[in-house]
Design goal:
The protein is mostly helical. The chain is built from 4 helices and no strands.
């Protein structure tokens, strides 16, 4: 259970960093539209790429923590490592609503 809590704290921190990256990217996009130099466009692309990678890491950690919770807390054996299958199991175990499950997929 402690490892799940640690992963949730890590996930929470990653979400905060993702939110910060999104806010900064949006602000910089507005600024770069004012002064649309080649360097600003490259920097904006780099910021978008970094934000996307943060998002991807958050999604990846989300389903892995969900799998860990299903195995450790709900005592559900999961021989699968597919994010969609894990989310389906979470919906079946009522950890997620059906609409939340559909949103993930």
């Amino acid at each position: 259970m402690d490892i799940i809590k640690e992963k949730i704290v890590l996930f929470s921190g990653m979400l905060q960093k993702l939110e910060t990256a999104i806010v900064l990217s949006c602000k910089y996009e507005c600024l770069s539209n004012i002064e649309a130099t080649k360097e600003n466009k490259m920097l904006l692309r780099t910021m978008r790429d970094a934000t996307f990678l943060r998002f991807k890491c958050c999604v990846d950690l989300f389903w892995k923590v969900l799998k860990l919770h299903l195995e450790e807390v709900e005592n559900i054996e999961l021989p699968i490592n597919s994010p969609r299958a894990i989310v389906r199991e979470a919906v079946t175990a009522r950890l997620l609503t059906e609409s939340e499950g559909r949103e993930y997929m």
